[in-house]
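Kindly draft a polypeptide, keeping tokens residue-aligned:

***
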Amino acid sequence: MHTSRRKKGLANYKNSLLSLVIVSGIAAILWVIINQGEKLSLISETQVPLKKVAETSISTFNAFAENLSHPLALLLLQIIVIIGIARLLGKVMVRIGQPTVMGEIIAGIILGPSLLGLVFPEANAFLFPIHSLGNLQLVSQIGLILFMFIIGMDLDLRVIRKNAQSAMIISHVSIAVPFLLGVMLAYLLYPSFGPQQMGFTAFALFIGIAVSITAFPVLARIVQERGWTKSDVGTTAITCAAANDITAWFLLAAVIALVKAGNINSALVSLGLSAAYITFMIMVMKPLFHRIAEQNFTKETINKPIVAIFLFSLIVSSYITEVIGIHALFGAFLAGVIMPTNINFRHVFQEKVEDLSQVLLLPLFFVYTGLRTQIGLLNEPHLWLVFAAIVAVATIGKFAGSALAARWVGQSWKNSLIIGALMNTRGLMELIVLNIGYDLGVLTPQVFAMMVLMALVTTFMTGPAIDTIEYFYQKKVLPPLTNASAFNILISFGAPPVGSRLLLIAEKFTSPKHKQKSITAAHFSPSADISLQNAKLFEKEGFEPILATAKDRNMKIKTYYMATNEVRKKITETANSDSYNLMLVGSSKQLLSSDETGGKVSHFFDDVECSVGVLIDRGFTELNRIAIILDDPSDNHLLRLGQLITENATANITALASFEMAIPEKELFRFTLMDDVMHTDKLIEAAADYDLTIVSLNFWKKTKDYSIGALLESQSLLIVNK
């Protein structure tokens, strides 16, 4: 053995020596080549004057400065700043109950001449020099094309047809009334604010469209955030907004064709070509795309060739409508509308496009709009009065028109007013229309600034308006009567498999003695910024495991779904909104913590009114043997859960206590009580043989920070606070 080690050491020495010789030889050869190459230069380094060395240092600094101002480096810097500020302000807006898009629009105005250019003009000139705006515009237009494609996919024409009778009346009135008021307003504005090179007709039509537009994406997010997607008011508002968008974009296409053509004959030619192209897309391309989707609707089958086909059709459609004269965005919108209706196909395809568009490219459009918005032009009091008139016309026309039409078709006053408030939101769709008008020369810089501010104000007022309506129409609800025979459980879960695990525990607490018992499963998507199609798919996928478990065990459960930016708040509100006796949730950790009752779970213990049970799942397979640890007399509230389990008669339960219990308590609760009083660590060791251990929150806090807490790491625990 000793000889073997010597041979191995000698071999390692030889290999190391050989490596050293090879590296040294290569280094020597390189030195000779470089040394001889330097002699080829006419001027050696020793002959370079000091002035030349100084110039070299200066040129190095200049080269660095040139790199900073290189178009690619500048564009990347712009994207970094734009995305950072847009996401930050988006978070702030969500905190105050506003949609994320509000923060992104405000970010654009902040980075533009209205604030950054006014306070720090040098920084504005460095970050957004005039020569760089062309690149920023082109990249933002690509983002808009992808966004309009997604908007087209979000529109479910089947929903429009299903609710067509009443929704179409509301939609048409909500366009016609503000459009008429907008044209009347344009008549008053044109002498002072109309572009000299553009006739009144184009100006009036653009103002009419601008005040009658509705932001379908923002409206859909608000409906999702408030949990109205399956309610009458929610489905009606979404249907109206979808029909409104389709009508508005066709009107806009007609106006663009008229403005670009310059005369009615050329405009009619453009509209005729547009009608022919739309017919071709619906009659030829839509059935073809549907057949492709029938065979390819999973992530595995929607591969690069399939994605290439649909993206190619998107680009071609945008190009054709741009050449026809009705703008590339209309072609992108149309390409999205004719996409296959298969929900799985749309979801997978949207995943590939949506994040790139909305996170990376779309904020560039907001900033580009902000760079065009010069609030400083509104430097006289009468200009702000004109702005107030624009806001009033837009709000009265849209809000009142939609609300009265909704009331006419049979909606209650509350729902009618809510529909009016929802239809009055404008957001991004308004900015798209305004930028098109600005590019065509229809809107002057002053009018453009007023209309951008109007879009901000009308979008911002939607949330507070709905809250005010609900406040005045709120019903006085009497507190529920206490019913000893009722036991209601709320299961709130994130990952779908966790829901099934929690349901197995909830089953143990539903005693046959409870004449009124219910289990409600709630699932919350942690973002309201998802499409309606994705929300439906997430709801379906989220509840599939728990519904399958309920079916296998012959259990009836209710389901509740919501997409929200404030998951913790909505879970708490849901738990406190009904007479629940127990809420079951899975464990959670903060980012840099190992505490499994940290994160949002820690707030539930304090904020939720009913008992809260947090499951730390270590992989139980059955729940035949359950232990309850009673480490202190304050843990006696766990005995109530023990009694429920014994009444269910589907599991054996044992109480492990570290204190002497009174005889009446032993007799009252019909389950095994260990006669021996045990120390805390012995309690944990004894519980190791059980499928599930129920402990109090106080006991968990006591043990998790000490060495005996390590004994709990292999056990499934249910931590109950009260």
Q: What stands out?
A: Residues 2-47 form one domain. The CA atoms of residues 143 and 356 lie 8 Å apart. The chain has three domains: 2-47, 77-471, 486-720.
